[in-house]
Specification:
106 residues, alpha+beta
Length: 106
């Protein structure tokens, strides 16, 4: 199943997060969905920005620097990849450093 098919027909985040779904997890899913829609090949999360790019060119960026959620965007992204089997199949971790975390969309 492609990520496009997943988001269009099979996406049920409350089944993946029945007890602990929150706004941050919801936002991260929306951002992944937007990256798929925009045919991006890379998602990068820094302490201040969520960036999706294609062939090294930034397609979209969302500033998250002033937001102090209960769960960090970084932890939410890692949790989604850990728990959501379809997302895990399509996101490949390419960098996890103090400055940023980067996944390639396959």
């Amino acid at each position: 199943m492609t990520l496009t098919e997943y988001f269009e027909k099979h996406f049920k985040p409350l089944e993946v997060f029945p007890q602990d779904f929150n706004e941050v997890i919801g936002f991260v899913y929306i951002y992944i969905q937007g990256a798929v829609r925009d045919n991006c090949d890379t998602l990068t999360l820094t302490s201040t920005d969520f960036i999706c790019s294609k062939e090294g060119q930034v397609v979209d960026s969302f500033y998250i620097g002033n937001i102090n959620p209960d769960i960090s965007f970084r932890d939410a992204l890692k949790l989604i990849v850990e728990r959501d089997e379809v997302i895990r199949q399509h996101l490949e971790l390419v960098e996890d450093s103090q400055e940023k975390i980067t996944y390639r969309l396959n």
